[in-house]
């Protein structure tokens, strides 16, 4: 019979415990989770990158809703447990849900410590603990006003850096003489302060907060010496304390936290506790590595292995602020029985200090250059006698044994049991073993199979080096494929940062994202131009010098330097008047070739560039506009004759095709976008190999997408079925806008879908009407700026330099 | 023989878009005249040695241009193909005085002879 396991709290520790438990004893428990936060399990370590805009919430989710469903777990979101009845073995939530348990796990985490000074409860005073805090800070940051962060520890500095990168004027108040004094010695604390100040953040040490002042909301912070620092936002990041109130009320033994034995059992053997709320061996923990160790032990006990024991280990500290490298571990206080080795390079901003006792490392502080942290940690853990290499120890592993300074060699030299990922306690041997044993080929694989580099990510470089060492040239780090040689960032990162940082010109993108070239190249400039056009339709001025020639002159360049011209024929329907006008143009300009295209249009090939405006002028007089046959944008909507003529037609496919084309023409998309509407499932318009297709049926419209009939051949996926033309249009437009906002430049829909997955697109477009409506409206908004016929603009004189030579040098002049 | 008289004025620097190019037709063929983001001006023959693409229609980045047909990249300063491709286009002397651009196409002929 399955036992009932109830978990209070849904943070990283219980999440990890469940992963272990589901692996060791699948089906043994029926699991119910109560989460006071209204969301799934996410990576709290990554809140700082969310605050600074380097990551989005979706990217830090550890277990999505699907995971709970797949594993048969009931998750109550936004339910706070208010009572534990140990006699009846039940828990009750603030929404009145009562759940019986056989085993209970308390993982209520910690609460931020709020200094009880006057004014601490004013609106505008925040803590920094969960996503709600981050969202409140982001809201406050929109004012671009002043912020004060109280606390110069790990969290405080990450919060300050995040707020500053969001445009706020930030001051950090720290009560001690140097920053992060619990992890850093004064010298490294000073270097850190200098680096923080260099980013434009003010730092005040020995600053004792007297009160927070303001009428009805925060207006400033007053220090003990009377100084007042104006601020509209105050973040308190002075520490955390275990959240043990519920356990105490239930009569469990509580010290600093909920007291547990080395098997994670509380004073009631039916109840376990783990995470930041638990106290084991007189210690409470706040870093993720020991919490994950607790998760492993708790899962083992729940699975029936009573031998697992939690053992204390020092955990290295790293600061997650981009551009500041910092690593500290162990004990580094001065003492008579201790010696130290120090390396300083003031110009390079490097400081390294090793604290030794009896020729063994007991503490390490690295600032500016932290690559050897793992090696020093390994020496410390193994209590290695370092007297042999003492002279060169501080220079790091690469200098031992005379080998050259090569990071790959340094990683190769690490023993198999050296720890690579501190957060998840993964050693080198497990990673290389998984790579060879399971045939892993990339970083994401390693993360999925071993968890290494899956939490804070600071060991990503080491993991990539292990992939390279193990796989040799077969390792192709596609996960981080840069856009081009001008940057190390991939397309997705660039797109996200354009939005997060509000970058609205190509020079701003290149400056802020540290482009390596002054002016980009022919790969990145068109991509950036598209991203900016798509993201800021009303504000961005299209940079035609960053477009390929076809989009710059609105025609298709041919192998001999002439151009082809394709006028728009809505839905592929034309008339004698239009055909006559085309025939006249062909005669007048002696156009050598006229051809019918695959998208039901007429193509005139071999036109001289100088003639283009005159050709367009004549076509324009007959009512033609550009067919955008050259564009990464909406090309053609191909149709069959539908219910107007066809004896099998179920709907007006021609009319719908024309309607879609008139609605969507002129829009730029990541790659070309070809559509079709067929009037019945016989599918004469070949809608099932298009980027987006519609197949009409008796009861409505089947919307297809992600087909291909070019380099690759692929049938479409079915997005869903709708009843009316209006709904069909809304779905198609919303899908197009989602693609416009998310895909990489030159990525056709079917490739984008392969990355994102059909279910996710269905979820956003078909199942979430609000999201669909929002996509639709953003498309409509951007069309206000996009639906201008480029041909008539150029007939009226725009960009005329494009179509005329600057000068003609005759024989007479040349002979002078 | 070359002398000062070989310079031919072709127009104003303002006629050429920054990070762009214009063409000049000559009896010896077309010349592309380029202007970089930092207002340096270069002239090369408008004919890619690979498949004859009109280089003046390419995207200009730094002091280079990418051919619109098959993405070969050329240095505007030396005329040499950059990256993995090998080849040269002829460069033509160009000068800018008081915003007025002049070229000396005679030198291209010399180079070709």
UniProtKB/TrEMBL annotation, chain A:
Instruction: Specify the Nitrite/Sulfite reductase ferredoxin-like domain's residue ranges.
Output: 558-621
Gene Ontology biological process terms, A to Z: nitrate assimilation
Quote the record's cofactor note: Binds 1 siroheme per subunit. Binds 1 [4Fe-4S] cluster per subunit.
Please give the superkingdom of this protein's source: Bacteria
Q: Which cofactor is recorded for it?
A: [2Fe-2S] cluster; FAD; siroheme; [4Fe-4S] cluster
User: Which InterPro entries does this entry report, sorted A to Z?
Assistant: BFD-like_2Fe2S-bd_dom, BFD-like_2Fe2S-bd_dom_sf, FAD/NAD-bd_sf, FAD/NAD-binding_dom, FAD/NAD-linked_Rdtase_dimer_sf, NasD-like, NiRdtase/SiRdtase_haem-b_fer, Nit/Sulf_reduc_fer-like_dom_sf
Sample GO molecular function, one term: metal ion binding
Where's the BFD-like [2Fe-2S]-binding domain?
420-468, 483-532
Pfam families (alphabetical):
Fer2_BFD, NIR_SIR, NIR_SIR_ferr, Pyr_redox_2, Rubredoxin_C
Task: List ligand-binding residues for [4Fe-4S] cluster.
Answer: 640, 646, 680, 684
List residues of the NADH-rubredoxin oxidoreductase C-terminal domain. 317-383
Keyword Ubl conjugation set for record: no
Record-stated family: Belongs to the nitrite and sulfite reductase 4Fe-4S domain family.
Q: What is this protein called?
A: Nitrite reductase large subunit
């Amino acid at each position: 019979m399955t036992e009932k396991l109830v978990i209070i709290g849904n943070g990283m520790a219980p999440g990890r415990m469940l992963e272990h438990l589901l692996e060791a004893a699948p089906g043994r428990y029926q699991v119910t989770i109560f989460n006071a936060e209204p969301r799934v399990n996410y990576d709290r370590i990554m809140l700082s990158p969310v605050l600074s805009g380097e990551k989005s919430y979706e990217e830090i989710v550890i277990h999505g809703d699907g995971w709970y469903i797949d594993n048969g777990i009931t998750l109550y979101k936004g339910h706070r447990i208010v009572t534990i009845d140990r006699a009846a073995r039940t828990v009750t939530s603030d929404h009145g849900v009562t759940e019986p348990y056989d085993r209970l796990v308390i993982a209520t985490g910690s609460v931020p410590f709020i200094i009880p000074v006057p004014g601490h409860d004013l609106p505008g005073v925040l803590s920094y603990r969960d996503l709600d805090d981050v969202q409140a800070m982001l809201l406050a940051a929109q004012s671009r006003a002043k912020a004060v962060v109280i606390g110069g520890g790990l969290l405080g500095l990450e919060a300050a850096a995040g707020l500053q990168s969001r445009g706020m004027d930030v001051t950090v108040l720290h009560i001690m003489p140097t920053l992060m004094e619990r992890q850093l010695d004064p010298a490294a604390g000073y270097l850190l302060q200098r680096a923080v100040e260099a980013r434009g953040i003010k730092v005040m040490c020995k600053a004792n907060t007297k009160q927070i002042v303001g009428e009805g909301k925060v207006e400033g912070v007053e220090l003990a010496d009377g100084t007042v620092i104006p601020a509209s936002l105050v973040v308190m990041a002075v520490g955390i304390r275990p959240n043990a109130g519920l356990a105490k009320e239930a009569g469990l033994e509580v010290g600093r936290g909920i007291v547990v034995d080395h098997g994670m059992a509380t004073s009631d053997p039916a109840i376990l506790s783990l995470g930041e709320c638990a106290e084991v061996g007189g210690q409470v923990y706040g870093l993720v590595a020991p919490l994950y160790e607790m998760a492993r032990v708790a899962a083992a006990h729940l699975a029936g292995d009573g031998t697992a024991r939690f053992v204390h280990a020092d955990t290295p500290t790293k600061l997650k602020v981009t551009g500041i490298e910092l690593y500290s571990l162990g004990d580094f206080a001065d003492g008579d029985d201790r010696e130290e080795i120090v390396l300083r390079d003031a110009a390079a901003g490097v400081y390294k200090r090793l604290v030794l006792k009896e020729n063994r490392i007991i503490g390490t502080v690295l600032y500016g250059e932290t690559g050897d942290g793992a090696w020093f940690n390994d020496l410390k853990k193994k209590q290695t006698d370092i007297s042999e290499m003492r002279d060169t120890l501080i220079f790091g592993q690469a200098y031992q044994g005379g080998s050259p300074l090569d990071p790959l060699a340094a990683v190769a030299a690490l023993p198999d049991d050296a720890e690579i990922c501190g957060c998840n306690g993964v050693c080198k041997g497990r990673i290389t073993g998984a790579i060879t044993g399971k045939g892993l080929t990339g970083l994401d694989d390693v993360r999925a199979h071993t968890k290494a580099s899956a939490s804070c990510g600071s060991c990503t470089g080491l993991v990539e080096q292990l992939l390279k060492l193990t796989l040799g040239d077969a390792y192709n780090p596609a996960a981080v494929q840069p856009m081009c040689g001008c940057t190390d960032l991939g397309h997705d990162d660039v797109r996200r940062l354009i939005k997060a940082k509000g970058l609205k010109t190509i020079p701003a993108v290149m400056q802020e994202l540290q482009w390596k070239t002054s002016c980009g190249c022919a790969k990145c400039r068109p991509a950036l131009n598209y991203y900016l056009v798509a993201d800021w339709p009303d504000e961005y001025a299209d940079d035609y010098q960053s477009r390929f020639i076809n989009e710059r002159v609105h025609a298709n360049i041919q192998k001999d330097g002439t151009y082809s011209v394709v006028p728009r024929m809505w839905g592929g329907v034309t008339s004698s008047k239009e055909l006559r006008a085309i025939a006249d143009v062909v005669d007048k300009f002696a156009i050598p070739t006229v051809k019918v295209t695959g998208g039901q249009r007429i193509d005139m090939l071999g036109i001289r560039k100088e003639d283009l405006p005159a050709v367009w002028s004549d076509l324009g007089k007959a009512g033609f506009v550009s067919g955008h046959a050259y564009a990464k944008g909406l090309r053609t909507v191909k149709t069959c004759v539908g219910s107007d003529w066809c004896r099998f037609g179920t709907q007006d496919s021609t009319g719908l095709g024309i309607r879609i084309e008139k609605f969507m023409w002129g829009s730029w998309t990541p790659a070309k976008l070809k559509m079709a509407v067929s009037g019945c499932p016989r599918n004469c318009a070949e809608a099932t190999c298009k980027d987006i297709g519609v197949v009409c049926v008796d009861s409505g419209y089947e919307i297809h997408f992600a087909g291909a009939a070019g380099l690759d051949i692929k049938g479409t996926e079915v997005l869903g079925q709708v009843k009316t033309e209006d709904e069909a249009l809304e779905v198609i437009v919303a899908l197009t806008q989602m693609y416009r906002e998310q895909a990489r430049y030159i990525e056709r829909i079917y490739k984008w879908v392969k990355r994102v997955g059909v279910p996710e697109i269905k979820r956003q477009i078909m199942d979430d009407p609000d999201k669909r409506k929002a996509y639709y409206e953003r498309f409509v908004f951007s069309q206000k700026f996009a639906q201008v016929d480029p041909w008539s603009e150029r007939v009226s004189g725009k960009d005329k330099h494009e179509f005329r030579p600057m000068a003609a040098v005759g024989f007479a002049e040349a002979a002078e | 023989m070359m002398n000062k008289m070989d310079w031919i004025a072709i127009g104003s620097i303002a006629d050429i878009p920054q990070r762009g190019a214009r063409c000049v037709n000559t009896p010896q063929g077309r010349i592309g005249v380029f202007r970089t983001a930092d207002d340096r001006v270069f002239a090369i023959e408008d004919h890619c040695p690979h498949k004859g693409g009109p280089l003046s229609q390419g995207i200009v980045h730094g002091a280079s241009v990418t051919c619109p047909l098959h993405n070969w990249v050329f240095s505007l300063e030396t005329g040499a193909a950059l990256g993995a491709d090998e080849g040269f286009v002829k460069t033509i002397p160009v000068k800018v005085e008081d915003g007025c651009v002049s070229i000396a196409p005679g030198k291209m002929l010399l180079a070709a002879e």
